[in-house]
């Protein structure tokens, strides 16, 4: 199939045309240069070469055009893909809607079926037959079935109501009869009482009937009376005065133990239950006042105290914003690195061209959108200046301008076959030497030099990119090109390095099993070898340094002893045994000083009898203990001290002798702080470290915000003090400023904001007064309140209810009286 | 003349008994001083000595965080010789304070206000003890003797209250208010007695010609009380120099109950167990509970204001934050004034047994818990519960008897009938 058949797109036709032209041009050139027709005459040859170079230029022009078109075509393809994807999403959405509609339809059908099949009550009503009904109501004869049914049901309803009314009337009558009955019975009972009293009176008057009084008074002696309620208007018969005088003699006779006073009142205690005399209005009023006094205390003092002491202060938190941060909706961290390109010996047009092509190549190479390199042209002088300025890598650049990540200096050098790069170890400068003839021509869209620069930059930042991708996504899956070794390396490094902290404590310890060396030039060594590094790290974390010397420090009894190796002429430690080297039980290595974690550096000087001490497998003398610190075995030159030829360590370790150890320690410190191992330039690594820390702090603070938001949502009973709200606000503002700084490439400022954000986030999350009540659910409050307030409350509430009832009853009585 | 001789005999015997106990058992006062039943953080003599030591060396007495008593006690005790080397003068001073308290009781009893006041007259007026017997009850009560020997500073509060009452029943309302101000200044809680005390004064005044207006009478006396307390506070301020420091160390200590040393009350155990976040709330509840009785009892016993004071003292002995046996002894001191109510009480045996049981077992259980280590805090707390239960029963029974007395006065025809509480 011909190519013109396959490619039918309008926009691609020019490409085809151009490529055909190019092909023709190529063929023309080839024909021109056909060795068979090559003339041997010099003048002709020159002519030919002129012609061929002309042809060649034409060819180049065509090629350039073709490249341009190719680029366009690729862009168009991307656009098309994009629009296809959008269209497909739209279709998916519509499809989903369709399915929803389908389900809705099914549901509705089901509902309709259910409605139709509904078994209504009226179907099972025992209605009178239709014929009977029609006889009763002939006017319904003509009406439809529906109306007829309604009429029948209404008829049934009316009938039933009539019957119910009749039933109620009968019930009332029954009640009336029962009441009548009761009243009669009461009358009878009263008659009984009167009779008894009559008998009493009669008895006192006729003492000849003692057995009768025994029968009647005896049971009465033990009966209590109620002190609160009584039948109104009860009056003793007038004869009682007379009778009372006689009672004492009589009751003694009947064996009653009551005192004379007590028995005086016995006469008004009949054998049936008796109520006490009525309460005076004054007593009622007093009781009302007592209850009111207690309730006044409860209402006017108790409730305000309860409200004041148990209300939970919950400051309002911007929950949605916090959740947005945790979900990564609020900020997508990007890392635009600004790279300055200094071309002191190039024309500005050439330089522009080079810049453009290199940027193109870089963009094509990059596959991780969040991390990209931006080239920028500077003239040589500012570049050098910038390079010096950012020598420490992390100094803040004035607001508004981005940090310069790297300065690339292009220097022409004669006699080079291809470009060559050289990275300054102490500054952020990359020198690229190139043969002058490789300067790309303005028309060309690609050149070996730009490709070289792009590849070099890509290589420099590949590890950082992988690390950031790892942190942002939790794995390296997002980056296809990351080699498994690199991924493993990053993973290992992150596992080995300390968790980020605001402050690290560095502890340098000198351990020796003997009495010497007993002093070391530690202050000078720290100042010389460690302090510059700490200075450089100061924007990332704070450090404190302390040191100690421990003599007679022995190995743990369980640790494997060093063995003498004849071939090495040295004492060796096995690699497997290194984990037991540090005698954590006896060596005074503080697990933590103050708030931050401690990084321990141990300088171990072996006993003269075991010197030199090295590691068996690789003759190394130092190792890292992940997330804890580093160990260095120092074997100082031994000296003869006594006559028997005994060897001893020097008593003092000078700064020079400490040099290898402290170089190692500073390297270990870098590793423990999670600084990447590439590139070779320390400032670049620090910059990388800054970016990585900024990214991880940003993520950690955001997720802390999310946790706090979830916590406050799920536990509505915990208090939120105002300080937490302030901390949250500070965190959020610093998070957003950090994100903005990142976007503009000011990583130092971004890290500073992220640090503040992280500190505030931690403070708000671990606020003490919140934590105290987390485990105090509402239902426990019942257990807290009831044991004391229950017993106090019950009599008060009951008293109040009784009083209210009494008042209500009196109202009713008043209302009924007139 | 014979009455006077009896009085002298009782007072002298009480004095000699105390002196004898101090001389025969020289270690007894210090032993009692250390007992938690007698010495609480707010009345301990030991703490007073600590404060005194700091005070005599010109250091703020509240700096040590041990001393929580009113500052005016310091110059008073600074006048006495050192209690460590010369224990007798201090002891005799305390004996004399006890005798003074007994004298105040005699005055109260002699006034007869407990049986017959302006609005009330007991049914069994004739059933009563004379002042000397009441004083003897007080002076020979083991609780009083223990308090006196332990040199607890609550005896000064006791004298403040007793003199306030004795002046009130004697019609000397200004002195009564000054004495109550002194007691309130020392221990804060006697201020709650203001309303019943003013009622006593008012009733006394109203017995004479042209009774004063109730509102202005109360307001005048409240102002008097406030003025006396303010004057004492001003004096204290002169002594300590730092007003807020001493207020927070004394009254703040009373109100917020930060010291949960075991005592015979109900607060310490409860607040040890309490969740911290509810502490303030329950402090409020406990204090309100204590204070809420004032209103209720005052309304109910308007006709016997002296009985309100007695009942409230019983309530304080049970429910106050740092109670000791001295509070109970004050309650027991006023009870014999109501001898006429004794026949009406129903559970005296039960209450007496509970109190005896707990006062004997309390020290034993405390020893088991603290020294022997074979018991725990619940042992002692259970005993303090029994103690409070005994006091509560006694108090409730007394209140019941007083109610019954009032009721019998209204219904003379039913005197002596049995009753059932509903």
List keywords for this structure.
heterodimer, A: 818 residues, alpha/beta, Chitobiase, domain 2, 5-stranded mixed sheet, 22 helices, 11% strand, flat, B: 422 residues, mainly alpha, 18 helices, globular, coiled coil (chain A), transmembrane helix (chain A), PtdIno-glycan_biosynth_class_S (chain A), GPI-anchor biosynthesis (chain A), Pc18g05640 protein (chain A)
List the helices and strands and how they pair.
The complex is a heterodimer of chains A (818) and B (422).
Chain A: H1 3-6, H2 13-32, H3 42-116, H4 130-136, H5 145-205, H6 210-221, E1 225-226, H7 240-244, H8 247-253, H9 260-264, H10 281-310, H11 319-326, E2 335-342, H12 348-365, E3 371-378, H13 380-389, E4 404-412, E5 420-423, E6 429-434, H14 448-473, H15 484-496, E7 503-511, E8 519-520, H16 522-537, E9 542-550, E10 563-565, E11 570-573, E12 598-604, E13 613-615, E14 622-625, E15 629-633, E16 639-640, E17 647-648, E18 652-653, H17 655-672, H18 682-714, H19 722-743, H20 747-765, H21 768-771, H22 779-816
Parallel strand pairs in A: 2-3, 2-4, 4-6, 7-9, 7-12, 8-18, 11-13, 12-15
Antiparallel strand pairs in A: 5-6, 10-11, 14-15, 16-17
Chain B: H1 2-24, H2 28-34, H3 45-56, H4 73-79, H5 87-111, H6 131-139, H7 142-149, H8 154-169, H9 173-187, H10 194-207, H11 214-240, H12 243-256, H13 267-273, H14 279-300, H15 305-319, H16 325-334, H17 348-372, H18 377-410, E1 419-420
Family (chain B): Belongs to the PIGU family.
Protein name (chain B): Pc13g07920 protein
Keywords (chain B): Endoplasmic reticulum, GPI-anchor biosynthesis, Membrane, Transmembrane, Transmembrane helix
């Amino acid at each position: 199939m011909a190519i013109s058949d396959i490619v039918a797109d309008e926009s691609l036709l020019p490409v085809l045309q151009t490529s055909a032209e190019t092909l023709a041009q190529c063929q023309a050139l080839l024909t021109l240069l056909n060795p068979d027709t090559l003339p041997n005459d010099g003048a002709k040859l020159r002519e030919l070469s002129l012609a061929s170079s002309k042809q060649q230029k034409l060819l180049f022009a065509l090629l350039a055009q073709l490249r341009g078109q190719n680029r366009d075509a690729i862009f168009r393809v991307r656009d098309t893909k994009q629009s296809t994807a959008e269209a497909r999403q739209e279709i998916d959405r519509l499809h989903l809607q369709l399915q929803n509609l389908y389900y809705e339809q099914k549901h509705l059908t089901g509902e309709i079926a259910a409605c139709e099949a509904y078994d209504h009550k009226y179907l099972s009503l025992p209605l009178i037959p239709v014929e009977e009904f029609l006889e009763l109501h002939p006017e319904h004869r003509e009406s439809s079935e529906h109306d007829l049914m309604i009429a029948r049901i209404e008829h049934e309803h009316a009938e039933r109501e009539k019957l119910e009314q009749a039933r109620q009337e009968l019930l009332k009558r029954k009640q009336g009869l029962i009441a009548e009955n009761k009243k009669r019975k009461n009358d009878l009972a009263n008659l009984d009482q009167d009779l008894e009293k009559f008998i009493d009176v009669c008895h006192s008057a006729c003492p000849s009937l003692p057995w009768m009084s025994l029968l009647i008074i005896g049971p009465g002696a033990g009966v209590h009376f109620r002190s609160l309620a009584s039948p109104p208007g009860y009056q003793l018969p007038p004869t009682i005065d007379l009778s009372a005088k006689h009672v004492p003699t009589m009751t003694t006779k009947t064996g009653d133990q009551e005192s004379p006073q007590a028995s005086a009142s016995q006469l008004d205690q009949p054998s049936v239950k008796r109520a006490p005399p009525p309460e005076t209005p004054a007593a009622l009023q007093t009781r009302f006042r007592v209850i009111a006094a207690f309730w006044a205390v409860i209402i006017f003092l108790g409730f305000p105290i309860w409200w004041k002491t148990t209300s939970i202060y919950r400051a309002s938190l911007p929950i949605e914003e916090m959740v947005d941060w945790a979900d990564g909706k609020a900020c997508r961290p990007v890392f635009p690195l600004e790279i300055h390109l200094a071309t002191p010996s190039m024309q500005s047009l050439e330089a522009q061209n080079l810049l453009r092509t290199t940027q193109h190549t870089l963009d094509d190479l990059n596959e991780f959108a969040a991390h990209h390199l931006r080239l920028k042209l500077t003239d040589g002088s500012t570049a050098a200046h910038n390079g010096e300025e950012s020598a420490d890598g992390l100094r803040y650049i004035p607001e508004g301008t981005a940090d310069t990540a790297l300065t690339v200096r292009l220097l022409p050098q004669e006699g080079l076959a291809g470009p060559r790069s050289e990275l300054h170890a102490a500054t952020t400068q990359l020198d690229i030497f190139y043969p002058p003839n490789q300067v790309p021509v303005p028309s060309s869209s690609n050149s070996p030099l730009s490709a070289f620069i792009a590849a070099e930059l890509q290589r420099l930042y590949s590890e950082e990119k992988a690390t950031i991708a790892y942190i942002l996504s939790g794995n390296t899956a997002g980056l296809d090109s990351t080699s498994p070794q690199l991924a493993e390396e990053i993973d290992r490094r992150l596992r080995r390095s300390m968790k980020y902290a605001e402050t690290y404590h560095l502890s340098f310890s000198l351990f020796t099993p003997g009495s010497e060396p007993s002093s070391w030039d530690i202050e000078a060594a720290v100042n010389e070898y460690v302090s510059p590094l700490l200075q450089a790290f100061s924007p990332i974390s704070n450090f404190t340094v302390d040191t100690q010397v421990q003599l007679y420090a022995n190995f743990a009894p369980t640790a494997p002893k060093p063995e003498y190796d004849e071939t090495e002429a040295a004492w060796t430690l096995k690699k497997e045994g290194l984990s037991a080297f540090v005698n954590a039980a006896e060596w005074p290595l503080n697990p933590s000083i103050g708030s931050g974690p401690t990084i321990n550096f141990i300088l171990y000087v072996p006993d003269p009898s075991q010197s030199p001490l090295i590691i068996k497998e690789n003759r190394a003398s130092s190792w890292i203990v992940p997330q804890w610190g580093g160990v260095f075995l120092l074997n100082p030159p031994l000296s003869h001290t006594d006559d028997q030829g005994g060897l001893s360590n020097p008593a003092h370790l000078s700064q020079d002798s400490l040099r290898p150890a402290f170089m190692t320690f500073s390297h270990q410190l870098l590793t423990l702080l999670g600084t990447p191992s590439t590139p070779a330039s320390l400032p670049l690594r620090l910059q990388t470290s800054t970016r990585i820390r900024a990214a991880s702090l940003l993520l950690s603070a955001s997720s802390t915000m999310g946790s706090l938001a979830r916590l406050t949502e799920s536990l509505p009973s915990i208090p939120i003090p105002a300080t937490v709200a302030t901390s949250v606000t500070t965190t959020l503002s610093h998070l957003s400023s950090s994100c903005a700084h990142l976007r503009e490439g000011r990583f130092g400022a971004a890290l500073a904001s992220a640090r503040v954000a992280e500190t505030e986030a931690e403070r708000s999350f671990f606020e003490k007064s919140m934590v105290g009540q987390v485990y105090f659910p509402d239902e426990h409050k019942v257990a807290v309140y009831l044991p004391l307030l229950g017993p106090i409350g019950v009599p008060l509430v009951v008293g109040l209810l009784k009083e209210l009832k009494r008042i209500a009853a009196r109202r009713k009585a008043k209302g009924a009286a007139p | 003349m014979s009455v006077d001789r009896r009085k002298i005999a009782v007072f002298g015997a009480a004095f000699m008994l105390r002196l004898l106990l101090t001389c025969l058992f020289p270690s007894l006062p210090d032993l009692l001083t250390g007992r938690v039943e007698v010495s609480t953080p707010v009345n301990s003599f030991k703490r007073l000595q600590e404060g005194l030591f700091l005070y005599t060396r010109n250091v703020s007495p509240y700096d040590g965080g041990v001393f929580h008593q009113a500052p005016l006690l310091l110059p008073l005790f600074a006048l006495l010789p050192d209690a460590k080397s010369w224990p007798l003068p201090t002891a005799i001073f305390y004996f004399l304070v006890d005798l003074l308290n007994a004298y105040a009781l005699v005055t109260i009893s002699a006034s007869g206000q407990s049986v017959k006041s302006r609005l009330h007259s007991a049914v069994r007026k004739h059933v009563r003890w004379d002042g000397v017997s009441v004083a003897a009850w007080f002076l020979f009560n083991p609780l009083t003797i223990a308090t006196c020997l332990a040199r607890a500073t609550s005896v000064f509060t006791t004298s403040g209250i007793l003199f306030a009452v004795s002046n009130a029943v004697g019609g000397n309302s200004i002195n009564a208010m000054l004495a109550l101000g002194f007691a309130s200044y020392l221990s804060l809680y006697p201020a709650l007695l203001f309303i019943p005390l003013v009622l006593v004064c008012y009733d006394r005044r109203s017995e004479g010609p042209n009774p004063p207006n109730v509102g202005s009478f109360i307001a005048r006396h409240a102002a008097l009380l406030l003025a006396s307390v303010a004057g004492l506070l001003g004096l204290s301020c002169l002594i300590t120099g730092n007003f807020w420091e001493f207020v927070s160390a004394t009254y703040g200590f009373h109100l917020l109950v930060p010291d949960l040393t075991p005592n015979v009350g109900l607060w310490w155990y409860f607040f040890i167990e309490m969740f911290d976040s509810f502490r303030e709330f329950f402090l409020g509840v406990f204090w309100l509970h204590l204070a809420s009785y004032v209103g209720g009892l005052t309304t109910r016993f308007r006709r016997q204001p002296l009985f309100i004071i007695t009942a409230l003292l019983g309530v304080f002995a049970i429910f106050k934050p740092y109670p000791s046996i001295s509070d109970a002894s004050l309650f027991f001191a006023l009870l014999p004034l109501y001898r006429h109510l004794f026949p009406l009480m129903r559970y005296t045996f039960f209450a007496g047994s509970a109190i005896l049981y707990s006062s004997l077992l309390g020290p034993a259980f405390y020893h088991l818990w603290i020294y022997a280590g074979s018991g725990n805090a619940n042992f002692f707390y259970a005993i303090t519960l029994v103690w409070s239960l005994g006091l509560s029963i006694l108090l409730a029974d007394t209140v019941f008897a007083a109610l019954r007395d009032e009721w019998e006065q209204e219904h003379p025809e039913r005197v002596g009938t049995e009753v059932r509480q509903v």
